[in-house]
Write a structure and sequence with these properties.
There is one protein chain. The protein is of the alpha+beta class. It has 2 helices and 4 strands. It has a 4-stranded antiparallel sheet. The longest helix has 11 residues. It is elongated. The relative contact order is 0.33. This is DUF2024 domain-containing protein. Pfam families: DUF2024 (PF09630). InterPro entries: DUF2024, NE1680-like_sf.
Length: 81
Amino acid sequence: MQIHVFDTHVMTTSGQYIHFDVLVDNENIKKVELYAAQYLETLGVKIDNIKQSRCNFCHSELADLEVQERIANQGHSIIRL
């Protein structure tokens, strides 16, 4: 399975830096920002607390089996960096 990697950087108003990748297939490219926001919410970071954010396409690659499974079940996979 070919996936697309979106390199995501967030700086919160409290100065916390969060870096992660959002991995999606062709069908879910338009949902990358939604998936990033949902992930941040699981970390307790609300949209109001974000000072700066960017989510840029980085590259495409073949996914390993674990990532393929997560994408099949959830539409995406997150890798915290």
